Amino acid sequence: MRLAELSRRSGVSTATIKYYLREGLLPPGRQINATTAEYDEEHLRRLRLVRAMIQVGQVPVAKVREVLGHVDDDSLGRSMRLGASLWALPQVPEPDEEDEYVQAAHQEVAALLDRLGWRNAKLLAAISPAYRSLVVAVAAFRRLGYDWGVEQLAPYAELMHRTAVLDLDNMETHPSEAERIEFAVLGAILNEPLLQALHRLAQEEETTRRYGFA
Amino acid sequence: MRLAELSRRSGVSTATIKYYLREGLLPPGRQINATTAEYDEEHLRRLRLVRAMIQVGQVPVAKVREVLGHVDDDSLGRSMRLGASLWALPQVPEPDEEDEYVQAAHQEVAALLDRLGWRNAKLLAAISPAYRSLVVAVAAFRRLGYDWGVEQLAPYAELMHRTAVLDLDNMETHPSEAERIEFAVLGAILNEPLLQALHRLAQEEETTRRYGFA
DNA sequence: GGTACTCGGATAGTGACGCTCACCAACGAG
DNA sequence: CTCGTTGGTGAGCGTCACTATCCGAGTACC
């Protein structure tokens, strides 16, 4: 198929596809002659993945390129590939370690991980962007005078852990290793907007249950 | 306190504070004379809230203004005020209702709400941005060949509902109505990055538990 | 074989966003 | 009186995700 058809089948404008090609988000098509290139189903699939990451996952173009690099990198083990992809996701700015709220948040999060027995997460704390994001979020609450501590966080963490278990169980239903990796990466990126939407919908449901529509 | 002190105490540059004032995210200070304005603790608090929304919650400036308008609008009831704030949050682009995947996703989500007995959410479906986001996310999965149906979604929805229950329980611990509203809005906005961070950390924990660090 | 169309590729431009800079006249401390 | 600082304003910056335009080379159709 040629560029125009790829565009038609994906619903993405030719100009945008050209942009993705230029940015290295799509591998170039098979060159037939100076003015024609041939694309296949794999290109279509990759294009849809890219669109999903950018539009649904709000992943910036540069990060998409990075994530795809990890997905295609056969030299990594499973944990590393998944981790590398997750870590490439958009991040919160670095916490200011001098800040007293940040320091208190560090303590709180460390206590939380102890309470939960998340030993691996503790080991990853120094390098994991998720850990840093958590510290930043907790610090933001504290700065506003809301003292979220272990007591408040633990039930949320428990629920999120169950969510993660579901994620991985779903992943394991896929037979081939390659497919599992793609699903894991994809799931890590697309699950979040989905969870967020479910969470907001659940909040609306619960709010109206408790207080009605007024 | 004057602008420079507000800047020092909040860690936000004076230029940025001026920008927020111009954009109406902060109410103007009490004018003392042509070159001096006085700000108080309320300004500081509001500024921290704005920063938290923008930096942690990734809420665009225009949305922050909108949300603050709802927070300050005493004419609304609780559900409406919370709803108005939640609905002002960044959204996914409108789903293309012509698209077959979107139509299938609609069916799937409707079936999900039936299964869960989320009657209020069903009523809100036509107007709720959360509902639309959910449809877009499910459609994105389907387009990539992963058929997330009621079976896969229901356990996630159940967990998210429990999360929402926690949210509202936490909100109800606050004594005054005004404080509850602020906490609810804030929670709705800041909880998401926090949940996301917990989710990612839980994924890392669970991945390494199952497959080690390799 | 003529011609109108389409192809891919490349360059430059767009509009939104979140600041950030430079400048200004008006003050206030020494 | 001088000099630094104040709050307010207009314009500018860098990034991002496209998008519009042009080009010369091929292709389909009559």
TrEMBL record, chains A, B:
Domain of life, per lineage: Bacteria
UniProt domain HTH merR-type: residue ranges: 1-70
GO molecular function terms listed in the Swiss-Prot or TrEMBL record: DNA binding; DNA-binding transcription factor activity
SMART domains per the UniProt record, alphabetical: HTH_MERR
Entry keyword set: DNA-binding
This protein's name: Transcriptional regulator
Organism: Streptomyces filipinensis
